[in-house]
Design goal:
By secondary structure, the protein is α/β, with parallel strands linked by helices. The protein contains 11 helices and 21 strands. 42% of the residues are buried.
């Protein structure tokens, strides 16, 4: 009756996983992508950003090594080598995604697709029909409109600059802004972060925000409560004017002020699909929109904008559509990391959120100088925090600022998913000497 059982619009992490899993269940699946295979994460998000983060750490590693007896010249950084090696790796990953889809029996359209009517998609100059349509088009960087806004860059362009900027302004206070500021500072640029609020990372635990803010100021110039009013070309670069304070001259302005749902030219006006804040598509717990037969997952629905969440949603949806299950996704205890300098790792509730939900809580924390830095001379400090429900002793939040925070929190997030209590953490033998062992050796609750 239909050309396909499922037509997926968008070949990012969620769309690809939904397509492959559905095909594995025997469905006839097609997927359309007009930009690049792998979506934001593979091309202009998680993967290249993490590669650049690795690159940015080497300058500090070289400095730290002197306390361990390493002497000699510090290697010079070459932007073109990093950029081109990154591009080669992304091209390799694009090919892998193509092969994964083809080998799964998914029909791939390297073209833009839009909904043309009920169960109908227009793609590559033709019209095809599908029993189900899945929108997995992700997000798109948002830049506010102001004089000179056309001169700024977003994460879509920043990885492939023709030349390395010696002076850069990063605008934003979320994790993407902090990550890019840390990257360019680590690579050697004079880096300024402008944020309209008091402290970055608004939705994170307050102590984590404050500790990271303190550490970030060691290598990034922070302009808080700051709003850009105008950008113009000057004799010596780009001149940025602010509503308050002195202007700043830089070589590059990066806006990391959030992302909106990428729903432009999708043909939603031909459907009953509803959108909400920042254009996010409204879906129910089974990812179905207000138009029966049309579903949406990933960043385009505006829930947890994380790659593993999108892939998990894709698997749940595929199972529901083609195995007859009625699964939903549990969004509690989703661990996340900020690859700032130093890293942040977090899972569960913030202290503020925990007090709101549980009332009586117990907080444990530890701050220390990493063993590595007893010889390196680096003043960076590590901070860890555990939050428990006083009534049950169950761990409801774990947070960290420090080296490898994401790697460390990942394991503890599995324990939290299993309902670990503070007593069970206390009974766990730590690995010594590691930073991670601090999470199983905190014994004294914080006053108040």
């Amino acid at each position: 009756m239909f050309d396909f059982d499922l037509f997926v619009i968008g070949a990012g992490s969620g769309g690809v996983r939904a397509a492959r899993t559905s095909a594995g269940y025997g469905a006839r699946v097609a997927i359309a992508e007009d930009r690049y295979m792998g979506g934001t994460c593979v091309n202009v998000g998680c993967v290249p950003k993490k590669l650049y983060t690795y690159a940015a750490h080497f300058s500090q590693d070289c400095s730290d090594s002197r306390g361990f007896g390493w002497t000699g010249e510090v290697p010079a950084f070459n932007w073109h080598v990093l950029r081109d090696n990154k591009s080669a790796e992304i091209e390799r990953l694009n090919g892998i995604y193509d092969n994964l889809l083809s080998n799964s029996g998914v029909t791939v359209f390297n073209a833009r697709a839009k909904i043309a009517g009920k169960n109908t998609v227009a793609v590559d100059g033709k019209t095809v029909t599908a029993r189900y349509i899945l929108i997995a088009t992700g997000g798109w960087p948002f830049v506010p409109d102001f004089p000179g806004s056309d001169m700024v860059l977003t994460s879509n362009e920043i990885f492939d600059l023709p030349e390395f900027p010696e002076r850069i302004l990063v605008v934003g206070g979320g994790y993407i802004a902090l990550e890019f500021a840390g990257i360019f500072a680590g690579l050697g640029a004079s880096t300024t972060l402008s944020y309209r609020g008091e402290i970055p990372l608004k939705n994170f635990d307050k102590d984590i925000r404050e500790k990271l803010f303190t550490e970030s100021q060691r290598h990034i110039s922070m302009r808080m409560n700051s709003n850009v009013s105008e950008i113009r070309k000057g004799d010596d670069g780009i001149v940025v004017a602010f509503e308050e304070g002195d202007p700043l001259t830089v070589d590059c302005v990066l806006y990391a002020t959030g992302r909106n749902a990428n729903t432009r030219e999708l043909g939603l006006e031909k459907t009953r699909v509803k959108t909400g804040k920042n254009g996010a598509i409204s879906v129910d717990e089974f990812f179905e929109t207000d138009e029966p037969g049309i579903y949406a997952i990933g960043d385009v629905v505006g829930r947890a904008a994380l790659t593993p969440v999108a892939t998990a949603e894709g698997m749940v949806l595929a199972s529901n559509l083609f195995k007859g299950t009625r699964k939903t996704l549990d969004y509690a205890n989703i661990a996340t990391a900020v690859f700032s300098h130093p890293n942040v790792g977090t899972v569960g509730l913030s202290e503020e959120g925990a007090r709101d939900k549980y009332g009586a809580i117990v907080v444990y924390e530890s701050e220390f100088r990493h063993l590595k830095h007893t010889l390196s001379g680096n003043p960076e400090r590590t901070y860890m925090k555990i939050i428990t429900d006083k009534a049950t002793d169950r761990v409801i939040g774990m947070h960290m600022v420090g080296a490898d925070a994401g790697e460390i929190i990942q394991g503890f997030s599995a324990a939290m998913q299993c309902g670990v209590t503070k007593a069970q953490l206390d009974s766990t033998i730590g690995i010594h000497p590691t930073a991670a062992e601090e999470f199983v050796t905190m014994r004294t609750a914080r006053d108040g």
